[in-house]
Write a structure and sequence with these properties.
The complex is a heterodimer of chains A (about 180) and B (about 300). Chain A is built from 5 helices and 3 strands. By secondary structure, chain A is α+β, with helices and mostly antiparallel strands. Classes of the chains: A alpha+beta (about 180), B alpha+beta (about 300).
């Protein structure tokens, strides 16, 4: 009896994940954020270890879709509805410089974020009162924001609180930049 | 075997993925990024803390069947199944009780979410009706769905699917852990259960084959309004279960392990263990005296215990 219930629950999980996959859930998100195979070597999503000076690496990420693995083309109707719920990478920004601040019990980080032609081109840390010196997060995190065109940066090992402050500051600046 | 580790901020916590693979770093990097994308996608759809999220928008529509994204539908369907199996000890309609206790801020933006309606005191999972063929959800009363326990597990499971080409990996989403294959030392992965009273310490470590290990503990999230209130409320009474400090459940899927670790925590030592035995899952409950209460087959996963 016990085994029957857990087997039924396991089947339920398996079906749930299968149907989410069949609906092509990653169509929008993954294709917008994943770099096409050919250019993958120019970006290092690994935090900290490889602060490549290429701040201009932003790639035509809106068009890449080669690496999506879901069987999207066979998805039943309703898939388009699903895709629309993901807007993170479609957000339009207006040009200008926008301020944002992030605070937690460990301190505060403020940024001035510049948007040109709809893209994030610069992130300057204007205030940093966290436990660690600014050099721990600067220029690694600003470069990551520019590369990813998103506030969702990797967490720097050992500097979680500073990273969260920074991400919150960028998020708040982007809220003001939203069209 | 190459090893890659990456951490990102999602699901209101720090998510760390570690991959052990002979495959080229570039390919693994891409799959890791896809795994994080999957997690962020679930978060966007299922977050109670985002006014724009589909789950939040569903909350505003009472009395009409609403077509929802597949992820949301599956999360709700699974949550309702577990609710029925646990007699409501697990219940996704606990959302407004949580908000009343101040669990109402987005973890990143700090923005409060506001309820647009007066909440009726008594709601339960029976007030959520799903229509499988049409993939619609109907709320019979104004209520706030809190899919935290299911959505986090689901996010981890989807991330694991993205990484299925890698020989070994671990996904650690703060309380929800899923491991596959072997660790960098070519051994089965070891997973620690946190010491409920000493932050940062491990009380028990487990060695597990391909498996999700989820822990619900009362020390993890505390109400900003009242520090005696934690995030694991009994949906049936709105009260705080007190006879266990944490509950850990093993299962092939994180959504399954998380839902039942939550339910077992709420039911407490005796009924919680009984539920796990009835359902056929293994787990361990830790009491305030730091005693371990285990299901019948749990011992074999214990790798080491510390002396409190």
């Amino acid at each position: 009896m016990a085994a029957r219930i857990s087997n039924r629950l396991i089947t339920l999980c398996s079906l749930a994940i299968g149907s989410i996959y069949a609906a092509g859930y990653l169509v929008t998100e993954a294709s917008a954020s994943v770099v096409p195979n050919g250019t993958a070597t120019s970006i290092s999503p690994q935090s900290g270890t490889n602060p490549s000076g290429k701040t201009s690496v932003s790639s035509g990420s809106q068009t890449g879709s080669a690496t999506n693995s879901g069987p999207a083309s066979t998805a039943p109707k309703g898939q388009t509805h699903q895709g629309k719920t993901s807007t993170a990478h479609k957000t339009q920004y207006k040009d200008g410089t926008f301020q944002g601040t992030g605070t937690n019990i460990y301190g505060t980080v403020s940024v001035a974020l510049t948007v040109k032609s709809g893209r994030i081109t610069a992130v300057n840390i204007t205030q940093c009162t966290t436990h660690y010196p600014q050099s721990v997060i600067d220029p690694v995190l600003p470069q990551m924001v520019i590369a990813k065109q998103s506030w969702q940066v990797d967490i720097l090992t050992g500097a979680t609180a500073s990273t969260i402050d920074f991400a919150q500051a960028v998020y708040n600046a982007l809220q003001q930049a939203k069209l | 075997m190459g090893k890659l580790v990456q951490s990102q901020l999602c699901l209101g916590t720090r998510v760390t993925i570690q991959v052990v693979s002979t495959r080229p770093k570039d390919e693994v990097d891409i799959q890791m990024e896809q795994a994080f994308s999957a997690i962020r996608f679930v978060e966007q759809v299922c977050s109670r803390f985002d006014e724009e999220s589909p789950v939040r928008r569903l909350t505003a529509q009472v009395g009409n069947p609403v077509t929802v994204p597949v992820i949301l539908f599956e999360a709700i369907r699974f949550a309702l199944q577990v609710s029925a199996l646990t007699g409501g000890a697990f219940d996704p309609t606990v959302g407004q009780v949580m908000e009343k206790h101040g669990f109402n801020r987005h973890y990143l933006t700090g923005q409060e979410v506001e309820l647009a309606f007066q909440v009726e005191e008594s709601v339960s999972y029976r007030d959520v009706v799903i229509d499988e063929p049409h993939r619609t959800v109907l709320l019979l009363k104004p209520l706030v769905l809190d899919l935290g326990a299911v959505a986090k597990g689901l996010a981890v499971d989807l991330a694991a699917k993205e990484l299925s080409d890698c020989e070994g990996f671990s996904i650690d989403a703060g309380g929800d852990i899923l491991v596959r294959g072997q660790n960098p030392q070519q051994e089965p992965w070891r997973v620690g259960i946190a010491h409920p009273l000493r932050k940062g310490d491990t009380l028990v470590s487990l060695q597990v084959p391909d498996m999700a290990v989820c822990t619900s503990g009362n020390y993890e999230r505390v109400s900003p309004l009242d520090e005696t209130i934690h995030h694991l409320l009994d949906p049936r009474s709105g009260t705080l279960p007190s006879d266990v400090l944490s509950s850990t459940v093993l299962a092939p899927y994180a959504m399954l392990a998380d839902a039942f670790s939550t339910a077992a925590f709420i039911l407490g030592r005796e009924k919680g263990l009984q539920l796990l035995e009835d359902v056929g899952l293994q787990g361990v409950l830790i009491t305030p005296s730091l005693d371990l209460h285990m299901t019948s087959q749990m011992e074999r996963y214990i790798y080491a215990r510390t002396n409190n």
